[in-house]
Design goal:
This protein has about 550 residues and is mainly beta. The protein has three helices and 42 strands. It has five domains: about 150 residues, Galactose-binding domain-like (Jelly Rolls, Sandwich), CATH 2.60.120; about 90 residues, Sandwich (Immunoglobulin-like), CATH 2.60.40; about 80 residues, OB fold (Dihydrolipoamide Acetyltransferase, E2P); about 100 residues, Beta Barrel (OB fold (Dihydrolipoamide Acetyltransferase, E2P)); about 70 residues, Sandwich (Immunoglobulin-like). Helices cover about 5% and strands about 45% of the residues. The strands form nine sheets. The chain has an eight-stranded mixed sheet. Strands 1, 5, 6, 8, 11 and 13 form a six-stranded antiparallel sheet that branches. The protein has a five-stranded antiparallel sheet with strand order 4-7-12-9-10, with no helix packed on it. Helix 2 links the parallel strand 21 and strand 22.
């Protein structure tokens, strides 16, 4: 019995073999000082190394010259097969701890240890392929800001023996390759379970696959894909069994769920939801801006009290929608990126519920945005009375660039980020005067920002009077409980008055001298824009 047991172990061990699928993973092949078959980016320089090597005669010396890791990718494409597992390994030699290497295997994986200096260390990862095709493998290099070498701004890391080896076995097995998601959007009526088998001939009698879903009866001798009918709120536990010669030889299980939507009446309720859950926004939201210089089909929407960013990479909202359009019945999933709450649509909408709405910016001080920025995230705001840094004044606004805004006469700061590369703000001159900045409230990992859109969003604060900074106009009674309010000024000239509801819809557009008729307005909060002799102010009006 002991001899047979040992023989079985020996046979299983001998059934494992490994096939290397990386080309020039040992870094031995160079042409004219350039590494063959690999590609690298401008953030690193790659040189042939013959002294510090892990194996063979050569290694690759990487000098990291940037703190922007997005330009340090080192890549090669390899072929993989669904259901197979691959062992990935690379040897790293840290000459300093100012940067570190990170494995890339169809996604970002483990890091090297930056404190393990002047010695070779192995970074490994086990990759299971869910589809047959090509994947990218390689490295990315990340600086460590606290240790970044100030002199010359560089870090040196040696790399050798990058391997991706297929684990090959003769043991019959089954691998579930789909679905890869654990949850699906509400409205999903079916999900396909796909699998692949290894080392078994399903054509032979006695070799087959069974599938069991939840506590339902087992479905025998099925084929891939296996379709499971689904319904909102359902949870599904799936067992896939492989039989060979009428014996159970392998079992795999997978679970997934179908989401259900929670109805919320406002964006404030939506923002209070749980990231990953699905919601239906039953109240109307107004589109304040549509991003046109990317592939994510992003739209900023807001109602009377909050805003959120629609992130629609799938192009689900295919109905024609424009700035100023209203949307009712928006359905999707709440997500988050770099601290910014986002809403990912799961269904299209019939079209705009209203058109021609005007969204008025909310006046916000630099201090208020810096300390309470979550309140203004993804809403149209006007950042009041700040100045750009002296070093930026006179230069041109550049896309994907941050500029510091400081309170006039103070020390509080926030960030003005130019994020919309196809608008006319790009290439205009940064002013040295006091400015108001109209834009969308933003955030990057806790740092609150304002995103101006157009050149006209940068206002001269000294020529535009704003709510909270001037008493040129007075409006009374406020709160109002009658049919009129009085708007007075030093000159009492003709005034152009526009009144907006709390969701940004224009409800009055008129010219007056002193008296504004509000008889047709319902109780609530309104925004009043007043213009007289070229000067403007924005005030809040409460009607009881």
């Amino acid at each position: 019995m002991t001899k047979n047991y040992l023989l079985l172990i020996a046979l299983l061990i001998s059934s494992l073999s490994f096939g290397q699928i990386v080309t020039n993973g040992d870094f031995e092949s160079w042409t004219g000082g350039v590494l063959d078959t690999w590609t690298s980016e401008t953030g690193t320089t790659v040189e042939q190394e013959t002294t510090i090597v892990n194996g063979g005669a050569n290694a690759a010396k990487f000098t990291v010259t940037t703190q922007s890791q997005g330009s340090t990718d080192f890549r090669q494409t390899v072929n993989v097969e669904a259901g197979k597992t691959y062992d990935v390994s690379v040897w790293v030699y840290q000459a300093d701890n100012a940067a570190r290497a990170r494995l890339f295997v169809d996604g970002y994986q483990g890091y090297s240890d930056p404190d393990n200096l002047n010695a070779w260390q192995e970074v490994t990862y086990e990759y299971s392929a869910t589809a047959t095709g090509t994947i990218d493998i390689g490295l990315r290099f990340y600086d460590i800001s606290s240790n970044w070498a100030a002199a010359g701004n560089m870090s040196v890391i040696y790399i050798d023996d990058y391997s991706v080896t297929e684990q090959v076995t003769t043991v019959p097995s089954v691998t579930i390759t789909a679905p890869t998601a654990s949850s699906f959007a509400p409205g999903t009526t079916s999900v396909d379970v796909e699998y692949v088998t290894q080392n078994v001939n399903l054509v032979m009698p006695g070799s087959f696959v069974n599938v069991t879903v939840n506590m339902n009866p087992t479905d025998t001798d099925v084929s891939s894909p296996y379709t499971i009918p689904t319904m909102n709120g359902g949870m599904y536990d799936v067992t896939v069994e492989l039989y060979d010669n009428n014996m159970l030889v392998d079992t795999k299980m997978i679970s997934f769920s179908i989401g259900s939507e929670t109805q919320v009446a406002s964006i404030t309720e939506l923002r209070a939801g749980t990231v990953g859950d699905y919601y239906e926004l039953t109240g109307e939201a107004i589109i304040s801006y549509i991003v046109t210089d990317g592939t994510r089909n992003q739209k900023y929407i807001q109602d009377g009290a909050a805003g959120i960013l629609i992130d629609d990479t799938a192009g689900t909202l295919s109905a024609p929608l424009n700035i100023g359009d209203g949307i009712i019945g928006l359905k999707g999933q709440l997500s988050q990126f770099s601290g910014v709450l986002q809403f990912v649509p799961s269904e299209n909408v019939p079209g705009a519920s209203s058109t021609g709405n005007t969204v008025s910016p909310i006046d916000v001080t630099v201090t208020e945005l810096a300390t309470n920025g979550e309140t203004y995230e993804s809403r149209l705001i006007r950042l009041i009375d700040g100045t750009f840094d002296a070093g930026d004044v006179g230069t041109m606004f550049t896309d994907n660039t941050n500029y510091t805004i400081t309170t006039v006469g103070g020390t509080d700061t926030t960030v003005c980020r130019v994020a919309f590369g196809d608008e006319d703000l790009i290439g205009t001159t940064i002013p040295g005067t006091h400015v108001n900045i109209i834009g969308l409230g933003g955030e990057f990992n806790g740092t609150y920002q304002v995103f101006p859109r157009y050149a006209s969003d940068i206002e001269d604060a000294l020529s535009t009077e704003e709510f909270g900074t001037t008493t040129t106009f007075s409006m009374y009674p406020n709160p109002a409980n009658g049919t009129t309010v009085t708007i007075a000024s030093a000159t009492n000239s003709t005034k152009e008055v526009k009144v907006y509801s709390i969701i940004g819809k224009q409800v009055i557009n008129t010219k007056i001298t002193n008296t504004l008729n509000i008889a047709d307005l319902q109780s609530g909060i309104y925004v009043v824009q007043i213009t007289e002799n070229g000067k403007s102010a924005t005030k809040k009006l409460v009607i009881k």
